[in-house]
Amino acid sequence: MKKLILGAAIALAFQAAHAVTLINDTAVALPGTTVAAEPQLAGTVLEDKLTDFSIASLGITGHVQSRVVRSSVDGTLDFYWRVFNDDSSRGSIGNFRIGEFYSPEYNANWRIDGLGDVSPTAAYMFGGSYAGKGYINFQFFDAAGGGQIDPGESSRFMFLDTSATAYNELSVMDVANSSTTAISGLSYTFGPTAPVPEPSTYALMGLGLAAMGFLRRKSKQE
Q1: Which of 144, 198, 204, 213 has its CA 20 to 30 A from that of 47?
Q2: DSSP secondary structure string for all residues of the chain
Q3: Taking every annotated instance into account, which residue ranges of this chain make up the domain Ice-binding protein C-terminal (predicted)?
């Protein structure tokens, strides 16, 4: 019996560590994960960029580190972000948001084995008119109002695990306080790009269109 209980506990712990599938209009808790739990997260950094931001009304300044990693296991792309709040800032950061992040799936988490001070507590994917457009909010505040990124602190690396194999820099991002009453300006960040059909696919499409044209002409003649 003890072995069964221990086995179940290990299985649950392993399951909780994996990337979490996001649901429209729902704040989903993020447990954190590691490469040991998800070997497909290991890979090569393709691009890494720092982008400055400011929330002038609160005297907050900082920068966001955006990173694209190609998995060494399956060749797909993972997109990472880490938020830095400057030492000189006069306020805390409670939200990091991305938009126009088009992906077939939305699996989020943060890296326990990565750098940083503060981990996101949850991720919220916007539905309604934003459904399917990849608008996601990583939240750093907890029910007691704590857990925010204070001056001089940085977030842990949060990420979206995707099946994409190509990317561009057309997604957008911003940061905000915990109540989202004060928000930085929008900046561009990395995101998946739609795959371009192979030449053979275009050829097949052309044949299909030609066949459709032939059938239309034939029906008119009859």
Answers
A1: 198
A2: -HHHHHHHHHHHHHHHTSPEEP-BTEEEE---B-TTT-GGG-EEEEEEEEEEEEEGGGTEEEEEEEEEEEETTT--EEEEEEEEE-TT-SS-B-EEEEES---S--EEEEBTTSS-SB---EEEE--GGGTTS--EEEE---TTS---B-TT-BBPPEEEE---S-EEEEEEEEEE-TTSSSBPPPEEEEEE-PPPPPHHHHHHHHHHHHHHHHHHHHHHH-
A3: 195-217
Strands 122-125 and 167-176, sheet pairing: unpaired
Give the pLDDT band of residue 22 (cuts 50, 70, 90).
very high
- The span from the CA of 159 to the CA of 38, in Å, is 13
Contact 168, 49 (CB under 8 A): no
Mean pLDDT, the chain, integer: 84
For the record, the structure tokens of 48 come out as 């890494």
Is the pLDDT at 5 greater than 80, yes or no? no
pLDDT by residue (tens digit) across 89-136?
999 999 999 999 999 899 999 999 999 999 999 999 999 999 999 999
| Alpha-carbon distances, residue 214 vs 4, 154, 219 (angstroms) | 67, 63, 9
d(CA 176, CA 88): 17
